[in-house]
Amino acid sequence: MSIYDHFRPEERPFIDQVLTWKENAEIRHQDKMTDFLDPRQQDIVRSLIGQQDDVQVRIWGGAEGLERARVYIHPVYLHMEQSDWPLTLLTATYPVKFIQLTHRDLLGALMNSGLKREKFGDMTVEDGQIQLIVARESADFVRMNVTQIGRASVEFQEDSLSSYLVPDEKWIEASGTVSSLRLDAMLSQIYRIARSKASEAISKGLVKVNWKKTEQTSFLLEQGDHLSVRGLGRSKLVEIVGTTKKEKIRVRWAKKG
Fold it and tell me: Deepest in the core among 36, 75, 82, 89, taking most CB within 10 A?
C-alpha cells in the first residue's frame, strides 16, 4: 500500500511537499519553518514525520489553543525557542460605538491587500480591538497596506505575543447514526437541518471541508475532517465508531458552542 492511499488525492501535492521537508532534514540536515498551516495540514505533517530519532516537528501559532500555526521541521540536534519563532502580533482599535466589524471584514481586507492566506494565522475582532498574528516577514506589509477594514480606518501596531487574547471557545461533543458519510447527510445530522437544506448550502458554496470550499453533496467525509457552514458554525467528525445491526454508521462529532 502506498503512503498516498492514506490520504485524499487532492492532498497529494502537500504530501509531496512534506516528504521533501522530511528528506531535507534527514539527509541534508536542513531545517524548515513553514508558513501557517491549518489543523488538517498539521495533522498530515505529524502523520508523515512525527517525532523520529533524526527529525523532529514542533508546532506553534503564537499561543496555546490557536488553530493555525507555523511548523518547524528540523534535525534533532537543532533547536528553536518559542520566543524566536518568526511570529508577530499586530493590534489595532476601531470605534466600536459607531462601527461594527467582523472576522470576515478583517479576513477580506487582508486578502484584498494581496497577502496570501498562509502568511497570517489566528485573529480576533472584538469590543473595538483587532488582534492578528502574522509571519514576521509579512508584518511591515500589513502595516503599510491594511489601513482600512470595512468603514474603519486602522493603524496596526506591534505588540507582545503574550498579549494575544485567545477566545474562550468550547467544543460540544455528540454522537448518533447516519445512513452515509456523505457531506449532506453529516451536515443534516450535526446541524439538525433537513438534508435538502444541507444540499442547498453545499451547492451555494457555503460549506467548507478542511478549510476548502466543497460543492459536492456526495463528498465522502473521513474521520478527523473539519467542517464549516456559513451562518451555522464549525464542527468536526471526531470518530467513525462502527456500524449498527441495521447497517447505520455510528459517528461522534463536535460542534463549536
Answer: 36
Provide Rg for the chain, Cα atoms. 20
Amino acid, res. 75: P
In sign, the C-alpha dihedral spanning 103, 104, 105, 111 is positive
Contact indicator for 80, 57 with CB cutoff of 8 Å: no
Helix, strand, coil percent content, the chain, rounded in steps of 5: 30, 35, 35
Q: Give the pLDDT of residue 79.
A: 86
pLDDT tens per residue across span 1-18:
788 888 888 999 999 999
Residue 168 has pLDDT above 90, yes or no: no
Stretch (H or E) spanning 233: strand 233-243
Calculate ∠ Cα 87-10-117, nearest 5°: 25
- Full strand arrangement of the beta sheet holding 55-60: 32-37, 69-75, 55-60
- The CA distances from residue 109 to 47, 112, 149, 228, in Å, are 34, 5, 6, 21
Q: Which regions of 86-187 does DSSP assign to beta strands (E)? A: 87-93, 120-126, 129-135, 148-149, 152-153, 157-159, 171-178
